[in-house]
Amino acid sequence: MIDKAFRPEQARLVADAFARHGVEYLFIGKGGAILLGYPGATQDVDVFPRRSEENGRRIVAALLELGFSLSAADRTDIIQGKDFVQIGNGPFDIDLVFAPDGIESFDKALRRAERIENFPVMALRDIIASKRAAGRKRDLAEMDLLEEFLRVYDASKGDRGN
Questions:
Q1: Where are the beta strands (DSSP E) in the chain?
Q2: Domain boundaries along the sequence of the chain
Q3: CA-to-CA distance for 157 and 141, rounded, in angstroms?
Q4: Rounded Cα distance, 96 and 108, in Å
Q5: β-pairing, 94-97 with 45-49?
């Protein structure tokens, strides 16, 4: 069985390919929290791309470059910015979340985002808000740990109040 757990090198591959193709996006979800230093594990890379046909075309090109096999339906869903597109037929799993729960707009999330190395990452407060809004048991079970990490993270940054 192939281990498809999230690793930072997968995020680097995505970041590099997306940069080459000019994709506008943010890392989100638990993977985003991990990039900010959260000590956890997840099974996939979650990204919040800007919803536009041009950005969708860029995403398709970047994913093909990375070795993902995209069906015609996958390509259409990505280009049209379907709310949630899950891609599992590649070197790792990636979820494209064009409409994350609890997040008003890409532009507002982008203004609050952080850049960690080459990684554009949704603000930790937004990651937590999105997980809370989604209401999935696995997310809610970890909410106390994420909120404690937020307190530590803010303290280490001088509590800029992201």
A1: 25-27, 45-49, 84-87, 94-97, 114-116, 119-121
A2: 8-154
A3: 26
A4: 18
A5: parallel
**43 and 6 Cβ atoms separated by less than 8 Å:** yes
Q: Which fold has domain 8-154?
A: Beta Polymerase; domain 2 (3.30.460)
Order of strands across the sheet that contains 119-121: 84-87, 94-97, 45-49, 25-27, 119-121, 114-116
Q: CA 152, CA 143: separation in Å to the nearest integer?
A: 14
> Any idea of the CA torsion for 57, 93, 17, 107, to the nearest 10 degrees?
60
Q: Which of 12, 49, 9, 46 has its CA nearest to residue 31?
A: 46
The pTM of this model reads 0.91
Q: pLDDT digit string (tens) for 73-124?
A: 999 999 999 999 999 999 999 999 999 999 999 999 999 999 998 899 999 9
